[in-house]
Amino acid sequence: MVPLYTCCPFPSSKALQISPSFLLLSSRNPKFLPFTISRILRAISISTSAAKHEEPIRTSYAGVQLEETVDETKQGKLRLDSWISSRIQGISRARVQSSIKSGLVKVNGRVVDKVSHSLRAGDKVNCVISDLQPLKAEPEDIPLDIVFEDDHVLVVNKPSHMVVHPAPGNANGTLVNGILHHCSLPTVASSEKEVLYDTEDMSDDEQDIFHGASAGPASVRPGIVHRLDKGTSGLLVVAKDEHSHAHLSEQFKQHTIQRVYISLTCGVPSASAGRVDIPIGRDSNNRIRMVAVPGLSHHGRARHAASRYKVIEVLAGGGSALVQWRLETGRTHQIRAHAKYMGIPLLGDEVYGGTKNMALSLLCPRTPPYYNDELSRLVSRLERPYLHALVLGFEHPHSGEKMRFSCPPPPDFGEILNHLRKIGIEKPISKE
């Protein structure tokens, strides 16, 4: 008999000063929400789509050459990978980084293999985009925070800043590398298709399966059933056999997986609770960012996306809020894009507007002046979007027992939250 689990060890960190009452998770009557499944150890396969509307969409960039001088009007320094990405319409920075590391980029006639190399106005850049190469995931002895494990499933508390899948520029140190070692599995390799950064993430039905390089029995290949952004912390379930993967996938299809997130936001939603039903598509001006666009389509590429939210606490005089999210769909960067659409980007989310300047502009006017120095120090330490996968619930694929796990946010989240609470905390009046 498998019991209902609620656990999360933190052996190396101090206990967080967070009252369980702030979560308001409705554990007495949990809601199970839909989420689109992914396949075993997937990585995204892209048809690059950020090209100008009058240009054909490229499906391969192999052999594309760039010979250009950095614009004299540009001020200061520019990263080599960022600049090349901006000059070749629609290409991913991961693909550019792979080309740089392969020695296919010259600056002023000299080969440069450092992706963060600084360019100056007047530098002459010569670049050839490399062929796509299979990505290999090698087993690595990486410490994993295992919340639960049996012969069939593995529940992991992913730390922030850990990439889930190997990708160009992130070939090592990923969750997949650690799981392969933990489960004593052989190297796996992706198909020869372009793979996005984990920081770019993807919706779950846009991904491509990993194939075993050292075949091994299919029944022991681990399956990442869903995923989190690089900067997002929290709970993931991994299937350890084909039957478990198929069963968990079916639960995602039938909308019986429970997933609850919490975030810290810049500002407070105008309504303390609600539902956001706005399609999400890739931003044509910035391919690592998604955009929520009202209407049925966004250049034919936006997809239905719905999120439910609830303000748990109003913090620092209304400069921030602790918000709970329940997903009805599983689109790329869904919470981040919907939060931006609502005018409350996640604290620390530089991609979606939750910048340090934004945070200070909202916090400082709403708090006493003697907190200004503390706020400045606090905001200067923001390193990621403050989003945490708090609750994960599913039916065990073999026993059929209901399993539910919760895991408090990591120390960096808790530290920011406690500082904001000290400045000011209010409980909103719920309208649910």
TrEMBL record:
It comes from Gossypium barbadense. NCBIfam families: rluA_subfam. It is an enzyme of class 5 (isomerase). Residues 78-143 form the RNA-binding S4 domain. One of its GO terms (molecular function) is RNA binding. Keywords: Isomerase, RNA-binding. This is Pseudouridine synthase. One of its GO terms (biological process) is enzyme-directed rRNA pseudouridine synthesis.
